[in-house]
């Protein structure tokens, strides 16, 4: 369940020292959500991980709302690139 955050950061960063932009955070959260979803399919009774998943989904939702307010074109490109339905 290890996520290669450096590869995600390299793909979505705005400039070479960018580590915390909305795009990078959303992409990282998306990969973590995918990993947790796969974990919960195998471990249906793991309620603490389910709670963590819900928190990550809400955090990503807030970041996506912010990005849509600030940069709608970047928001659309990011959603298409990550394959998130919205």
How would you describe this structure to a colleague?
With 86 residues, the protein is mainly alpha-helical. The protein has a single domain, classed as Helix Hairpins. It contains 4 helices and no strands. It has helices at residues 5-12, 22-42, 47-70, 72-82. The model has no long low-confidence stretch (mean pLDDT 94).
Helix content: over 70%
Question: Which second-level CATH architecture applies?
Answer: Orthogonal Bundle
Q: Tell me the overall shape.
A: globular
In total, the number of strands is 0
Compute the separation of the termini in Å: 26 Å
Under the CATH scheme, which class?
A: Mainly Alpha
Count of helical stretches: 4
Give a quick account of the main beta sheet: strands, pairing sense, barrel closure: none
Number of domains: 1
Average residue pLDDT = 94
**N-to-C SSE string, H for helix and E for strand:** HHHH
> Uncertain regions: pLDDT < 50 for 5+ in a row?
none
Given helix and strand content, the structural type is mainly alpha
Question: CATH H-level name... which superfamily?
Answer: S15/NS1, RNA-binding
Radius of gyration: 14 Å
**What is the subunit organization of this protein?**
single chain
Strand content: under 5%
Could you please say which CATH topology applies here?
Helix Hairpins
Question: Layout of helices and strands, plus pairs?
Answer:
Layout: H1 5-12, H2 22-42, H3 47-70, H4 72-82
């Amino acid at each position: 369940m290890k996520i290669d955050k450096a590869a995600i950061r390299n793909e979505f960063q705005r400039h070479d020292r960018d580590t915390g932009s909305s795009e990078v955070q959303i992409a990282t959260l998306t990969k973590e959500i995918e990993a947790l979803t796969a974990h919960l399919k195998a471990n249906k009774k793991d309620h603490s991980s389910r709670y963590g998943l819900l928190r990550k989904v809400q955090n990503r939702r807030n970041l996506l709302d912010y990005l849509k307010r600030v940069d709608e074109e970047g928001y659309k490109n990011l959603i298409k690139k990550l394959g998130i339905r919205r």
